[in-house]
Amino acid sequence: MTHNTQNMGTLAGSGLLFMIAAWGALAQTGGPMDVQRLDDSPLRIENFAEHRATAVIFLSARSEASGAAIATIRDFNAAVRRQNVMTVAIFPDPAESGDEIRAFCQTAAFVFPCYRDPAHRAVRQLSVRVTPEAFLYDSKAAIVFHGAIDSLQQAFGDWLAGRPAPSGTAATGTPIDKSLPARPFQDPYDPISFSSELIFEKIPGFPAHHASTMAMAANGDLLVAWYGGSYESSDDEGLLFTRRRKGHRQWDQPQCLLQNLKEPVGNAVIFATPDGKVWIIWARMESTQPMRAHTGWDRTSLFYRVSGDHGYTWSKDEKFPLETTGWLPRNLAILLKDGTTVVPLSDERNNRDVSFVVLTKDNGQTWVRSHSMPNALPQGEQPAVAKRRDGSLLAFLRTRPHLLQTESLDGGVTWSPAKPTDFKNPDAAISLCTLSNGNLLLAWNNLERGRQQLHIARSVDDGKSWSEPQLLESNPGEFSYPSILQTPDGKIHVIYTYRRYSIKHLEFTENWLTTLDRAN
Q1: Which residues of 3-40 are buried (b: 16+ CB within 10 A; e: fewer)?
Q2: What are the distances in angstroms from CA 111 to CA 54, 151, 310, 368?
Q3: Which CATH class is domain 194-514?
Q4: Coil, helix or strand at residue 483
Q5: Where do the CATH 2.120.10.10 domains begin and end in the chain?
Q6: Hey, what CATH topology would domain 13-175 get?
Q7: For residue range 386-433, what is the model confidence (pLDDT) as tens digits?
Q8: Which among 48, 138, 487, 520 has the fewest CB atoms less than 10 Å away?
């Protein structure tokens, strides 16, 4: 019997002879095996000399014992395949079709050949009794181990090191001749879905774009609004708007909903109320002109417009029915279980950032302001709010150097003192979303400075812990002001500023975030 002399180089004399003799006593000639591919074409397994060793495992797609061994088999193959060890699975139950076996193997994430033995040629040749049952061949087709799956990896290690023949436990499982019904397989690798595109490439007269917001209309259309103009705070800034019609992949040509050179438009938020109407609440910049770029946010007033036909036509703009001097919208509204619409806002007057929400229980007929979200320095603004499974609300606040976090136990009326989190933030906007399964998604720039990287993280425990942040964008340029929305089909939509040239849209499934690779 040939052994790996490199691994046995330290062995000598009688010790080496004893070990070879011990393995030789166990070994029996297995020889070639005749099996069938999953399409029932014949195959003879006889290329043992091409591999350091060959592991042959008898399985059943219908056996619970075989199903319980899947992880052990995968671990064994992963541990030895790069050592030129071949793993082969053989399914002897003639009732199991090739398609059934293939489904089992794909669900199990097996990355090695799987064959059938409906005539039991290999079973009789090796006196196989149960499934699962394992055999280990050396390169000369001699069997050096026969026994339980759980002993296979240890047996391979012992054989490789030239240690005495193992006393592997006898295989136990489902008897070869036992008839079992077919069973369904649950694929652990759900499909992933991902697409991305710029919502537009160029809008004449509006070179710079920022602060996008998103909602789904009652007819299933996806609606997006943002401001665009010569630069941030320019007097030609306008409120721009587009839609992606239900069932379509293309976005409509953006249109300018309003433009006022004397009092330009600023941030806006678009949302649908339970009665099917679409609202846009937007900030009118009322600072004296001329204004320097990136200023004027502390002197705004809120206005709103409403559409009863999914955003095709709009009411005239009205002043919001509360005193809103210095108020600014940014993040998406949320709908509570009792039908209350919650809109996050902040007050940016006097170089202080005060965060709060406004609430309506009657589709916008009346509004009330919540208590402020208490926080010490650094102060936080532009709160992003999401529902938790127990009905409480979680909010993150934008500020440097880390995001702040607060919660409400009474539907957004009062809030706990905001506390710093471990999430970095360069004083840039964030977005928080509750998925239909209760998981949370947070999108933000997880950086101390700059907005050149955009991140996303997921929480499956109502924000108690979060996954490692993943990059959505890492190319040169600014990627900022994300908004996250999940539509009823389960798709997650993220929009954000793309280098101030455009607004980018991503569409993906939650599985795209969590299943980063699969067996191969």
Answers
A1: bbeeebeebeeeebeebeebbeebbeebeebebbebee
A2: 15, 20, 50, 60
A3: mainly beta
A4: strand
A5: 194-514
A6: Glutaredoxin (3.40.30)
A7: 999 999 999 999 999 999 999 999 999 999 999 999 999 999 999 999
A8: 520
